[in-house]
Amino acid sequence: MKRSLLTVSAALTLAIPAIVFASSAAHADPISQTSGFYVNPNSSPASWAAANPGDGRAAAIRSEIAQKPMASWFGNWSGDIGSAVGSYVGAADAADKLPLLVAYNIPGRDACGGHSGGGAGSVAAYDSWISAFASAIGNRPAVVVLEPDSLGDFSCMSQAQINDRVGMLSRAAGQFRSKAPNTWAYLDAGNPGWVAAQTMAERLNMAGIGNAHGFSLNVSNYFTTGENTNYGNNVAASLRNYGHNKPFVIDTSRNGKGSNGEWCNPAGRKIGTPTQTGGGAEMLLWLKTPGESDGNCGVGGGSSAGQFLPEVAYKMIYGY
Fold it and tell me: What does the entry list as the binding residues for substrate (predicted)?
């Protein structure tokens, strides 16, 4: 995923009108409907630890990463999206736990970064995919982060692509609102080192934040919780100028030592605060799985985005 560290200070003027959505009633609270966050027994670190019980790193990876609640990501690799999402949310519901999901399939995904490129083949294909995603959750409680990087990546996109993107995101937020009433959906808003807060608030407004529960920060990045809290509060303040009062969540999976200025598999990073409510935001969530590669770069040289690297995971537990 692209994590440019160039702050965009000037608001981007779009060729489409900035639609102001009236803030609507909050969805039912999925936290109060469940008894904690869901731990996926089939996550990549859990699967690796189970397959390598004699490895000296397995015990630490199992206890410090695999047994923590983390998000599962869904995209064009997921097969039938209704079946994939339905099975995952169903397993969490059977355990009375709250599942964390990331939707990552927007056309032109990772336009600037290039490591996680792909996505649905057309606007119509994405609209159909995300509709099936929301329908598969239905009335069951869930937390969904929509399309990491999608509102930060504008610098590598044409105006027509930008217009299509904010339209898709706006419709996606509406799908979750209408079809998944016990889901909190968050539009992704990048990170503190990427886009100025006022600019991000403008983009969130155009992308239908009025129909989402809130916005997410720091997905797959390393900025400290404090840095994200300050940025999130600034974005939220700017959103109020559009009539929106929205909370935010922070990805703390790899921010235990903060950022060293690199976004793609930097060395010496550390896992952060495990998934919880509160902590400076509405929730601190492990959205990126610690140990999963950002791409063929940094300490993940030779790997592909999403590939689990046990040595990286092991070092991330201890911060070296």
Answer: 73, 194, 221, 263, 288, 292
